[in-house]
Design goal:
126 residues, 4-stranded parallel beta sheet, 7% helix, globular
Length: 126
């Protein structure tokens, strides 16, 4: 999601994505709790094909969810599996802050509740 207002992703299932399972770039000026990811499963590498696994593991920094570079975002009830290579992790903050034309690189508050991490395959949560 590049730019949004009150949008809720509900119970999405994402797997084998080369950068992030889900990424919110910017939220508009909305009240807390109206832009969120609610429920769902995010899998880094399913291992279904050798070609996809080899590609993902070459991309040493794959993330489950990348949060926006704006305020008032919530992640609730998401489960994470298979981010156990390189510097991959379940969560990352500040979408697109790495880019030289980024509009912001300041810290933002993201609320999380009810997150579940597979202890065997998700050694880095953030």
């Amino acid at each position: 999601m590049e730019r949004s207002g009150a949008v809720i992703f509900k119970n999405l299932k994402c797997a084998d994505n080369g950068v992030a399972g889900m990424e919110y770039s910017l939220t508009e000026d909305i009240a807390d709790g109206y832009a969120k990811i609610q429920g769902g499963i995010v899998v880094g590498d399913t291992g279904l094909t050798t070609e996809v696994s080899d590609y993902l593991r070459f991309q040493t920094r794959v993330t489950g969810i990348i949060t926006p570079r704006t305020e008032n975002f919530t992640i609730d009830g998401v489960t994470f599996f298979n981010y156990d290579w390189g510097t991959s992790s379940a969560l990352k903050d500040c979408s697109h802050c790495w880019h030289p034309a980024s509009t912001d690189s300041g810290a933002r508050t993201v609320k999380t509740t009810g997150l579940t991490f597979d202890d065997t395959t998700v050694p880095r949560r953030i």
